């Protein structure tokens, strides 16, 4: 878990490669659906452009890694990603709205997982390889 630009996609891909996990990028799936000319696709596209979170359903996790990062770092990273990947939902106003929405909606979720002792905070301000080493320590502690 983490706000947009915290590095969760990068680290999930790294862990999938190292440990043979399957990485399903929810954001990528939602962007694919948003490009379709269906009612659901248009609805997802509108929600994403507003910088809101698209509602999803999933299974309960065994552990939750939270990538902690400053808002300035996340905005800088997402603006860079938007330029590189030409992503319409990575403009500054949408990014800031997504971050506000993330903090507002995810706080109770984080509290819930913390109370269940499933939360593992990872400082995500460092270089990706340093963050990955921390992720590996978490995964290997579970094996």
Structure characteristics:
143 residues; mainly alpha; two-stranded parallel sheet; 6 helices; 2 strands
Notes on the protein architecture:
The protein has helices at 8-19, 26-34, 39-49, 71-85, 92-115, 128-142, and strands at residues 64-68, 119-123. With 143 residues, it is mainly alpha-helical. The chain has six helices and two strands; from the N terminus they run H-H-H-E-H-H-E-H. Helix 1 crosses helix 6 (128-142), helix 2 crosses helix 3 (39-49) and helix 4 (71-85) packs across helix 5. It has a two-stranded parallel ribbon with strand order 1-2.
Give me the oligomer status. Answer: single chain
Mean pLDDT: 90
The residue ranges in which pLDDT falls below 50 over 5 or more consecutive positions are: none
The best one-word shape is globular
Q: Gyration radius, to the nearest Å?
A: 15 Å
How far apart are the first and last residues' alpha carbons, in Å?
A: 21 Å
Order of helical and strand elements: HHHEHHEH
Summarize it:
The protein has 143 residues and is mainly alpha-helical.
Secondary structure blueprint with pairings:
Layout: H1 8-19, H2 26-34, H3 39-49, E1 64-68, H4 71-85, H5 92-115, E2 119-123, H6 128-142
Parallel strand pairs: 1-2
